[in-house]
Amino acid sequence: YTTRYPEQVEGIINWGGLISSQAETRTMIHNLIEYYTESNDSLEVSFWNNWLNQSKPYNRLQTLRVLNRVNQLGIKSTYNKAQQTKRILEYRRRAMQEWNYTKGELGTNLWATCVTLMQLNLEHYDFSSKLNLIKQPYLFLIGERDPQMNKDDINRYMQLMPGASLEIIENSGHIIDNPEDMIHALQTFIIREESKHTKEQKAE
After folding, report:
1. What is the pLDDT of residues 84-140, one digit of tens each?
2. Cross-strand pairs, 64
3. How far from chain centre, in Å, is Cα 87?
4. Helix 60-73 × helix 111-119 angle, to 10°
5. How many angstroms separate the CA atoms of 140 and 32, rounded?
């Protein structure tokens, strides 16, 4: 939308948003290897290392299995399962009440991402080559323990966008586990960019 209608967009905030399916799949496999290494599960380590070393891009079934395994292990969040479930249900209740969403429209975990990727044939999606077209202020927000996002990939994306910045939210995974720090980062970004815009207008 931003590249097609740049005049309609003043800035962008990206929380765990998809830039490259293959990059995210690779990052998740690295996290699975780390998880099973800490668990001393050599068979799983060998299995995921084998996938990581494949020369061909990950196919649909592989992408689905990777996302599903990350979801099963619960490594997408810093909260334990009971806390996480309670929090997700509260978000669902608020979304249904305040924004008129229905239950069928709300995903409770990464399975929603799996379905989206599969239905829309996004397992090979890669927008990184078009990032240089984005001139607006751009904020990458990622959880420090997000199993899908890799800081090296984010830094590579940022080099293509002069208006990009990065905020890493502590004690958070792919889910918004730490809303207080996230809100603070959002406010800081918006206030900073509004101040810049005001100064530019005065200079004109």
Report:
1. 667 667 766 776 777 665 665 555 444 455 555 555 667 778 899 999 999 999 999
2. none
3. 19
4. 170
5. 23
